[in-house]
Every structure is written in structure tokens, then in C-alpha cells.
Amino acid sequence: MMGLDAMNISLTEVDVDMDQAEHRSPEIVAMNPLQTLPILKDKELILYDSHAITMYIASLYCEDTKLLPSNPASRALIDQLFHYDGGILYPHYRSCAYPILYENCRFVMPQQTKEVEYAYQELETLLKGRSWFSGTYMSLADIAIVATVSTLNVLVPVNKERYPVLFSWMFRMSQKPFYTTGNLKGLNEFTKRIDTGNVKDLQELKKSPRSSVTRRSTGGKLVDN
Ligand SMILES: N[C@@H](CCC(=O)N[C@@H](CS)C(=O)NCC(=O)O)C(=O)O
């Protein structure tokens, strides 16, 4: 959605309510056996990976050669970052979030936190000496990575002192209009899902907030009722 907004491309969107597990409905599973969003349906073509979807739409309609350069070498650099996002960052999201969302786990486990911190260090290194992951100009690769990092940030906050370059990049990305129109709503919904997870007893939940946002707003203390 951020990619679409950055490219100023509109398509017909269908809202799938993950709170109601609509992404596991037979209709969706028939399109995407992995039961994840987003899914793109374009006539007979069905795609269920955000990177493939973005690249497909951009190849057809994007006229902005900074967001998606046309020369093969620059495109390969974007592909490389897409693979880093999907192959390295995304699995961290899954191993941190799924136990909380689906297995009644209450915290991100220390080993997972360590691995996410390691990934933040890698991102910090990748960004050193450049303004954007793709180099001089912000590209679709920055957009893919900010989708994952802003989500991971809910689970393991990006520390400003430890990762100043990454933090500054995140801040600059968050100022982009497409971040507001394409990311904030989903990010807030995800934060809420992490906060409430599978917990049935809301009193219990108050004692042990899960998301970093809630933990920070309560000063990290357990709420005593
Ligand atoms: N590699 C996929 C991952 C998609 C993905 O995991 N999406 C999340 C939402 S952002 C999801 O659908 N999770 C399923 C769930 O939480 O049950 C992509 O980039 O599109």
C-alpha cells in the first residue's frame, strides 16, 4: 500500500479483517495457501508476496525512475534489498509475532530479541554513508524495508543511541506522505493485535503489556490493579 501511494497508482482494494481471521477464509486460502496478506489479483494472475506485487505493478505503471530505476544494475540492487527484506528481516517478524498472536506467548523471547538486534545492526551497517538503502534516492526497497522495520519496532524498539543511522532513516521515512496513508492504520491495528494477542482475561493483560508501545507508555512497569 505504501508502494502504491508513493507511485500514485490506484487499484481496487478489498479490506480483509485479520482480527476476524478473514485471511483464513476458504475464499482467501484458495488464492493464497500461505494465508497471508497482501494478495494481488489481476485477471488470471494471483500474487501473494508484497515484493513480487510491488515489482509487477511498478514494472507496468511506475514512471518514477528513482523509485524503480530502469537500468538492470540499479534494479538488481533493489532486488537484492527485497530479498534481504523477505528472506532475513521478515522471518524475524514471524518468529517474534506469531507466538504472541497465536500461541498465547506473552513476550518476545530473549533469543529472538537478540536476533532482531543483530538485524538492526546489519541495517545500520548497510545504511552507513548513504541516505537511503538504495543509495542517493529513496526507492521501493526503502519502502519494503520500512514496512518490516516499523512492525519489528513494535516488538523490539529500535534504540536511537545504538542505531542512530537506522533511527534517522526511520524518522525520515515516517515523514513521507505514503507512510501516513499506507502504513499507520495497519501498524496501529498490528500494535493492538500484539497488545491483546490471545489473552482472554483482560485483567491479566493489564498486568503484562506486550507491545513496546504500551510498555513504554507505562514506563515498563507492570500495571497494578
Ligand atoms: N512475504 C510476504 C509476507 C506477508 C505477511 O506475512 N503478511 C502478514 C501481514 S503484514 C500476514 O498476512 N500475516 C498472517 C497472520 O498474521 O496470520 C509478503 O511480503 O507479502
TrEMBL record:
Pfam families: GST_C (PF00043), GST_N (PF02798). Residues 71-198 form the GST C-terminal domain. CDD domains: GST_C_Delta_Epsilon. Residues 1-65 form the GST N-terminal domain. Residues 205-225 are annotated as: Disordered. Gene3D superfamilies: 1.20.1050.10, Glutaredoxin. InterPro entries: Glutathione-S-Trfase_C-like (IPR010987), Glutathione-S-Trfase_C_sf (IPR036282), Glutathione_S-Trfase (IPR040079), Glutathione_S-Trfase_N (IPR004045), GST_C (IPR004046), Thioredoxin-like_sf (IPR036249). Homodimer. Belongs to the GST superfamily. This is Glutathione S-transferase 1-like. The gene is LOC112044849.
